[in-house]
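Troubleshooting entry. Yesterday's outputs looked truncated, so today I'm pasting the complete records for two proteins to confirm everything comes through intact. If either block looks cut off, that's the bug. Protein one:
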Amino acid sequence: MSLTEEDSHRLQQTSHPINERSNLTEQQLTKYEAWKNQAGMAQIKLEFIDFDHEVKLSMEHLSEADKKLIGETKDETKNPGEPKKKKFRGQNQKHLEINARSSSNINDHQLCYFVVRGGLEKCPYQSNCKHSHDLTNYLSRRSEDLRQGCYMFDVYGQCPYGILCRFSQSHIDPITGHNIINPGSNQKYLEAMNKYPGLLKHLLRRKKYDYNVADRLVKMANKQITKANIAKRNNPPEVEEKHHDDTDVGEK
């Protein structure tokens, strides 16, 4: 593989010392000392560090789409008044679009989690909540149901999705938007033992769950374990000594 003149010149520069301590400024020396003590930084000798190096993007290794994005960013610098456009995209490039299409998000007014699951009185933030509490407004703007009859409500007597359900005509009050519960159907099944409610899941994720009872029990158990270990250390079990005769040694 043949090297260009620029590459060969750069290789020649990196293979020979380019700095002398006496020619460096105080700012460059201070920067070098900071690099030396920084975790994860390669330990390179002072004379081989190029303080004037600029990172340049090689256009020949970019795709056509990325080259187009770079051209758009250059146009943005010329017209600073225009809104900024999207830069290079990552793995979650469509998460904003998916959230915008969410059934709980209409015209950028996302419904409150607590209002959807339990009603306005369940929201701990009340008037300070950043999400919408207006169920009637949501009802007037939401899209039509896919079909009549909700399987969750017909089988269990309650739909956990409430007003967000796409089959909610059978279990949503059309005026208030509250979720209807049928206690008769609720008695026909038993929930799994390892299932926990949504509010508990919310508290665990937010790290707001009260562990006072568990912490108190753990402290009590640790005290009992410590006492048992001290007692075992002070009163070691007696080991029976085995006496061997001379006739026991070797083969009989």
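Protein two, checking that the full record survives here as well:
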Amino acid sequence: MKNVIGLPARGENFYQRTREIEKVIQSLSNGNNIQITAPRRIGKTSIL
């Protein structure tokens, strides 16, 4: 996996976070707001 600095990970560089993405979709579908917090360079932007 390549470490691309400054851009969201896409394609083969994106580590599948299926469970997290399902939780985000479910929360937003129910009309809830979400907040994604984590240390920098952990993949928050890529999930969005």
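Both blocks look complete. Sanity check on protein two: The chain has one domain: 11-47.
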